[in-house]
User: Which sequence fits this backbone?
């Protein structure tokens, strides 16, 4: 981590309910702490919600569902796995997961960045959206389950396939179903039958390479990978074929 | 393709009155009226008329009359004109029929089969002109019991957040994008002045309206448009929208044409793209998941605001409502069959869901049976037309009601059901800036405040007649209702007795 922090503290989450834990976090942030090390986290939900400051939260243990839901500002580092709903409707900030993440990672996120070292569950990146410079970015080191990027309306979704064996393809289906905005960069092989019918594929152009290099670089820095090795893989760009996928359903 | 659809209306122009001023031409967005330079006359293309009355009301010489086309089909109860014309429309377009407003079919309106009681002889009625009448309503979770401190009247019980309403009528969710910013401003200003709440719907809250936050319900729906911490903080109540009476179980598509620059900014999506709301919220597949989102929102607002959950009234609403209360909802909102919409497939609007009266009665009964009725307030919507409907809803068990269509009618809506076209001549259900100007938010707010004042006076009269001086005494008091023209099963579900018994 490169974020400058000056006022660090630690908090033992053992035995605390999510309500108690989050109340303590709000209190510590209000007191001016800008780095909080959370120990003994056992499934408490909503960590990082309603802090609204660029505080760094280092989680040792396993945080519960909705980690960073509606989050605006904090940087969360998880030394373990994240569960379902991580970065749900996230506004800004950063989540770095040194492990796996569960279903609906980044659901409806509208900004911020999420880096997951390993694999993710179903519907990652569903309905992410963007507006001008506000653009969510999800970088996933491993592979994903079905409905990856479903209903995607904006942002950048990167899947690196680093947990797959040599030559092993991604297995998920319905990738980008209903996609009408944003872009997916996918490293490794995927067949056209695995894609939603609203998705087009192409090679990466210079601008794509630039975007990818930036975020892969950040991913590699977080988890100690060599970015050049990652970039050597073969990438496919997935994009929405239509801005209005459901424009012809209706009779007026 | 030549259309086989007949014109719905005929436009009669009294040539003796018409001065050729072209107000009708300028007011009509459906291009019904036009000026012909050839004969220097104003004429009509009747097939375009939707019956919105805009031209009739703005014609300075009252030269226009709109009537139904006297086109007679051969009598056939099964193959009614509407059925025939729907088939024609689909055979010419190949699409789902889209419509606006609420179910217009003759399903039984139970409000019209319920009658209120009044005091005679054995208990005196109260004159609301001279005695105070209490309409104040508190929405939010109520404790199972209240404890006071020893030897004092200080409240020891920790209370969940409550919201005070001066009148038990709130403005229903209508999103910015579906309706115009001037509609939102009219609703917000009226809510602030009348001491009630309005609801943003799912399209976010324009920054111009943040100052009305204390009278605002901010909605979180499946598209999560415009949902961010400041938005959640701005509202007085956060409402999770699961479903809507006009289209239970399906999502929403705001067409790109309605996503103007300002709508895009508020929803935080690019200008001109479709705003697609998925059918389910993808973080809610169960009651447990609902609990998770309810508490996510409580955490996001530090437990300072009630969280409401809105569902469409469907067959098993009572069991679902029980789950919602147990999941932590502080307010449950039931939207009935006749609930309105800016756009929905007609086949869904007219065939899915159940009447609000039956859903309300069964939900209130179920929550009472389970001993959890105090844990959540009940708000109902979907076809509430007047203070009589409000009083009956309160007696059936509602804490408050939402009005959508009634509020829009106060703003000028003629229920012509063209909301989905984006061409609303009254400037209500459109984002076309040339049209939205037609509604002045100051006048709009005044009309809404007037409506609520009228209904409040009527509610007080109804209460006084019953001999009670507070709405609280009517709430859930079904003995004040009698049914007329209903079957035993209907009476049983409504929990009311037959008139005369």
Assistant:
């Amino acid at each position: 981590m490169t974020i400058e922090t000056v006022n660090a503290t630690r908090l033992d989450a053992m035995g605390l309910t999510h309500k108690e834990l989050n109340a303590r976090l709000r209190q510590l942030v209000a007191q001016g702490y800008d780095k909080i090390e959370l120990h003994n986290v056992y499934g408490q939900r909503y960590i990082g919600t309603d802090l609204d400051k660029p505080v760094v939260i280092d989680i040792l243990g396993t945080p519960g569902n909705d980690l960073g839901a509606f989050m605006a500002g904090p940087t969360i580092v998880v030394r373990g796995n994240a569960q379902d709903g991580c970065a749900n409707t996230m506004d800004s900030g950063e989540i770095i997961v040194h492990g796996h993440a569960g279903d609906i990672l980044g659901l409806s996120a509208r900004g911020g960045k999420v880096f997951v070292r390993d694999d993710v569950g179903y519907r990652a990146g569903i309905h992410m959206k963007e507006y001008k410079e506000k653009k969510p970015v999800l970088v996933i080191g491993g592979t994903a389950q079905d409905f990856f990027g479903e209903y995607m309306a904006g942002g950048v979704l990167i899947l690196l396939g680093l947990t797959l064996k040599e030559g092993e393809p991604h297995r998920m289906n319905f990738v980008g179903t209903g996609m009408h905005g944003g872009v997916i960069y996918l490293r490794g092989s995927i067949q056209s039958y695995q894609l939603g019918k609203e998705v087009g594929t192409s090679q990466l152009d210079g601008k794509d390479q630039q975007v990818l290099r930036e975020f892969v670089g950040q991913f590699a820095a977080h988890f100690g990978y060599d970015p050049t090795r990652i970039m050597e893989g073969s990438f496919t760009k997935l994009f929405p074929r239509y801005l209005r996928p459901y424009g012809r359903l209706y009779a007026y | 393709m030549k259309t086989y659809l007949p014109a719905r209306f005929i436009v009669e122009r009294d040539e003796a009155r018409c001065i050729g001023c072209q107000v009708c031409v300028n007011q009509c967005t459906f291009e019904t009226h036009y000026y012909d330079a050839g004969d220097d006359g104003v004429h009509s293309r009747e097939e375009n008329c939707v019956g919105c009355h805009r031209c009739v009301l703005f014609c300075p010489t009252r030269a226009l009359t709109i009537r139904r086309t006297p086109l007679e089909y051969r009598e056939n109860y099964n193959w009614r004109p509407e059925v025939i014309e729907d088939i024609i429309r689909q055979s010419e377009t190949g699409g789902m029929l889209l419509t606006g407003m609420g179910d217009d079919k003759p399903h039984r309106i139970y409000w019209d089969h319920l009658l209120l009681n009044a005091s005679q002889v054995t208990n005196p009625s109260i004159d609301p002109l001279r005695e105070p009448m209490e309409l104040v309503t508190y929405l939010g979770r109520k404790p199972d019991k209240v404890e006071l401190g020893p030897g004092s009247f200080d409240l020891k019980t920790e209370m969940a957040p409550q919201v005070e309403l001066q009148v038990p009528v709130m403005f229903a969710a209508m999103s910015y994008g579906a309706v115009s910013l001037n509609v939102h401003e009219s609703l917000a200003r009226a809510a602030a002045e009348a001491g009630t709440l309005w609801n943003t719907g799912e399209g976010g809250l324009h920054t111009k309206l943040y100052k009305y936050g204390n009278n605002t319900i901010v909605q979180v729906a499946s598209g999560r448009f415009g949902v961010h911490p400041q938005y959640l903080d701005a509202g007085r109540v956060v409402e999770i929208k699961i479903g809507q009476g006009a289209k239970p179980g399906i999502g929403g598509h705001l067409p790109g044409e309605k996503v103007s620059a300002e709508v895009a900014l508020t929803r935080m999506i690019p200008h001109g793209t479709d705003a697609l709301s998925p059918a389910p919220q993808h973080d809610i597949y169960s009651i447990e998941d609902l609990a998770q989102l309810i508490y996510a929102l409580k955490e996001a607002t530090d437990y300072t605001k009630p969280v409401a959950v809105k569902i469409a009234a469907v067959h098993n609403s009572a069991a679902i409502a029980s789950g919602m209360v147990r999941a932590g909802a502080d307010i449950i909102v039931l939207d009935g069959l006749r609930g309105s919409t800016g756009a929905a497939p007609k086949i869904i609007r007219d065939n899915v869901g159940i009447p609000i009266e039956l859903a309300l009665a069964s939900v209130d009964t179920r929550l009472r049976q389970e001993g959890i009725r105090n844990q959540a307030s009940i708000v109902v919507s979907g076809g509430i037309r007047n203070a009589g409907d409000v009083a009956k809803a309160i007696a059936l068990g509602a804490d408050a009601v939402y009005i959508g269509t009634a509020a829009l009618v106060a703003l000028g809506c003629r229920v012509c059901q063209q909301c989905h076209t984006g061409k609303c001549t009254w400037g209500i259900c459109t984002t076309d800036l040339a049209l939205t100007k037609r509604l002045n938010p100051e006048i709009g707010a005044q009309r809404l405040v007037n409506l609520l004042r009228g209904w409040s006076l009527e509610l007080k009269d109804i209460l006084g007649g019953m001999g009670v001086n507070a709405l609280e005494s009517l709430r859930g008091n079904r003995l004040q209702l009698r049914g007329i023209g209903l079957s035993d099963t209907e009476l049983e579900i409504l929990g009311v007795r037959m008139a005369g018994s």
Chain A has three helices and twelve strands. Chain A touches chain B through 47 residues (CB under 8 Å).
